[in-house]
Design brief:
With 181 residues, this protein is an alpha/beta fold. The protein has five helices and seven strands. It has helices at 8-27, 52-55, 62-74, 92-100, 142-163; strands at 34-38, 44-49, 83-88, 105-110, 135-138, 168-172, 175-178. It has a five-stranded mixed sheet with strand order 2-1-3-4-5. It has a two-stranded antiparallel ribbon with strand order 6-7. Helix 1 (8-27) runs parallel beside helix 5. It is globular and about 50 Å long. The protein starts with 7 loop residues before the first helix and ends with a strand. It binds zinc ion (ZN). Residues 61, 63, 90-91, 93-94 line the site of zinc ion.
């Protein structure tokens, strides 16, 4: 198991890094979710933020991008012993990716009651129907993680209302995104 990163202090340290990633997503007009894959020796193997809009790729969630980059870096399609650190509870697609990668531990900040698949809507981390289990630690820097999401969506709603039509808004700077209300 993860010998060197089991303390709350370490989780908070990594979550701060994941939050920095999420903020990059925010500034690009993406839903602000950040993720890291951390080796069991404590090295950060990969960091990523949500990019489905900019990459025009519905699978480009932070977790999937971080897992892909970490596997590529390790030269292995499996990452046993590694931890996935993510600001928001992963969706079912990302839990599927984590299970396929044999991630050992998931550390997330805030729950996602609408789509979370690590205990909220589904519990794919601890399903007895699957052949791999993922240890889950939740609530790390929860307020910061959920606060960034709330800030993003309230800004989006405000700009959506200001636009008068509610379907197309400028989220940040020159980044122009089509948004479904
Ligand atoms: Zn996801």
């Amino acid at each position: 198991m993860l010998r060197n990163i089991r303390m709350d202090e370490d989780f908070r340290h990594f979550m701060k890094e994941a939050l920095r990633e999420a903020e990059k997503g925010f500034s690009e007009g993406e839903v602000p979710v950040g993720a890291l894959v951390v080796h069991q020796d404590g090295r950060i193997l990969a960091a990523a933020h949500n990019r489905p809009i900019s990459l025009q790729d519905p699978t480009a969630h932070a977790e999937v991008l971080a897992i892909r980059a970490a596997a590529s870096k390790c030269g292995n399609y499996r990452l046993p012993g590694a931890a996935l650190i993510v600001t928001i509870e992963p969706c079912s697609m990302c839990m599927g990716a984590a299970l396929n990668a044999r991630i050992s531990r998931l550390v997330f900040g805030a729950s996602d009651p609408k789509a979370g698949a690590a205990g909220s809507v589904f519990d794919l981390a601890r399903s007895g129907a699957l052949n791999h289990r993922i240890e889950v630690v939740s609530g790390i820097l929860e307020e910061e993680c959920s606060g960034l999401m709330q800030e993003f969506f309230s800004l989006r709603r405000k700009r959506s209302a200001d636009s008068g039509r509610g379907t197309e808004v400028v989220v940040t700077g020159s980044t122009r995104n089509r948004l479904v209300p």
